[in-house]
């Protein structure tokens, strides 16, 4: 059975706030884990967050992005070195927090563009750096899950074919794939086909609506998406990711200029019910197909 979680971006981008009440709400609502944004190398913070979640019996996964100062494809070797060291420290924090997976567009600086397509040199810089980070992650029992983004947020990995080729180039068991339906909805000809292609390396999924609102309230065809997950035998974690008007720095970064949902609590409650319904419906459809084959 897939574990279902909630990304905390609709509440925080820093985890500096006291999140105890939010953790408790998500636990009582029925979530299995939270997806914690990590942008700090303060290890005491991640120990504290992990302890709070553990006391509630709540699971945890981690996500992060790299800014231009931590860009694995920077032409400046010092910046690339900073990126590797930063990612290793984020891996350490994820391990201290108890997160088995660290996902995100870790391969390049977020919204850091040259105005051109990625070069072979940039590709090789990223692959080489990520292999070093993956080797470190293996010592911490953390899996790195590469999340490709849409073309307006990155230019290195923007589709399933890109991320598959990247993971195969890194060639390390601790470097795998995360799949986000928001980006796939923008960049793929067929989301189910993209899922099928990623399946051998897929370890994490983010369910995100086309307008970043409550899953099931937009135009993404989640029925065919969950059919594809069932078809490829995906049993890993599934997290809801959405963005709203708060925190303001995230709203600016994700270009949210109007409310996408009534409240984070409404989004979480309705999103969880939707995912559980889709998973149950898919199990029923699978059972019906099996009965037809046997008839």
End-to-end Cα distance = 27 Å
- Can you identify the CATH superfamily? Divalent-metal-dependent TIM barrel enzymes
Multimeric status of the protein: single chain
Assign the CATH class. Answer: Alpha Beta
Question: Can you list the strand order of the major beta sheet?
Answer: 1-2-3-4-5-6-7-8
General shape: globular
Radius of gyration: 18 Å
Structural class: alpha/beta
**Approximately how much beta-strand content do the residues carry?**
5-15%
Note poorly predicted spans: none
Task: Walk me through what this model shows.
With 295 residues, the protein is α/β, with parallel strands linked by helices. The protein has a single domain (4-294), classed as Divalent-metal-dependent TIM barrel enzymes (TIM Barrel, Alpha-Beta Barrel), CATH 3.20.20.150. It has ten helices and eight strands. It has an eight-stranded parallel barrel, surrounded by seven helices. Strand 7 (202-207), helix 8 (222-232) and strand 8 form a beta-alpha-beta unit. Helix 4 (120-139) packs across helix 5 and helix 8 (222-232) crosses helix 10 (264-294). The longest helix is centred in the C-terminal third of the chain and has 31 residues, at 264-294. The protein is globular. The mean pLDDT is 96.
Would you summarize the structure shown here?
This protein has helices at 20-29, 43-56, 77-97, 120-139, 160-170, 181-187, 191-198, 222-232, 248-254, 264-294; strands at residues 4-7, 33-37, 59-63, 101-104, 143-147, 175-180, 202-207, 238-240. It has 295 residues and is of the alpha/beta class. Helix 5 (160-170) links the parallel strand 5 (143-147) and strand 6.
């Amino acid at each position: 059975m897939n574990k279902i979680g909630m990304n905390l971006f609709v509440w925080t981008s820093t985890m500096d706030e006291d999140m105890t009440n939010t953790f408790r709400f998500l636990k009582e609502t029925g979530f299995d884990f939270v997806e914690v944004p990590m942008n700090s190398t303060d290890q005491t913070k991640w120990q504290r967050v992990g302890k709070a979640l553990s006391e509630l019996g709540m699971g945890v996964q981690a996500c992060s992005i790299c800014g231009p100062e931590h860009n694995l494809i920077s032409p400046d070797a010092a910046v690339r070195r900073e990126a590797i060291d930063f990612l290793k420290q984020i891996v350490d924090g994820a391990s201290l927090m108890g997160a088995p997976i660290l996902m995100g567009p870790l391969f390049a600086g977020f919204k850091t563009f040259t105005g051109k397509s990625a070069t072979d040199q940039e590709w090789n810089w990223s692959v080489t750096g990520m292999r070093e980070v993956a080797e470190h992650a293996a010592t911490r029992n953390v899996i790195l899950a590469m999340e490709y983004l849409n073309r307006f947020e990155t230019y290195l990995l923007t589709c399933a074919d890109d991320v598959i080729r990247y993971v195969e180039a890194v060639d390390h068991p601790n470097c795998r794939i995360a799949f986000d339906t928001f980006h796939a909805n923008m960049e793929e000809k067929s989301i189910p086909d993209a899922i099928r292609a990623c399946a051998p390396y897929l370890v994490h999924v983010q369910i995100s609506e086309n307008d970043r609102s409550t899953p099931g309230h937009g135009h993404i065809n989640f029925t065919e998406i969950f059919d594809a997950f069932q078809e490829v035998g995906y049993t890993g974690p599934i997290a809801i990711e959405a963005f709203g008007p708060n925190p303001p720095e995230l709203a600016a970064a994700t270009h949210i200029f109007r409310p996408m949902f009534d409240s984070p609590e409404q989004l979480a409650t309705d999103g969880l019910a939707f995912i559980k319904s889709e998973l149950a419906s898919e199990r029923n459809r699978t059972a019906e197909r099996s009965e037809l084959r046997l008839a």
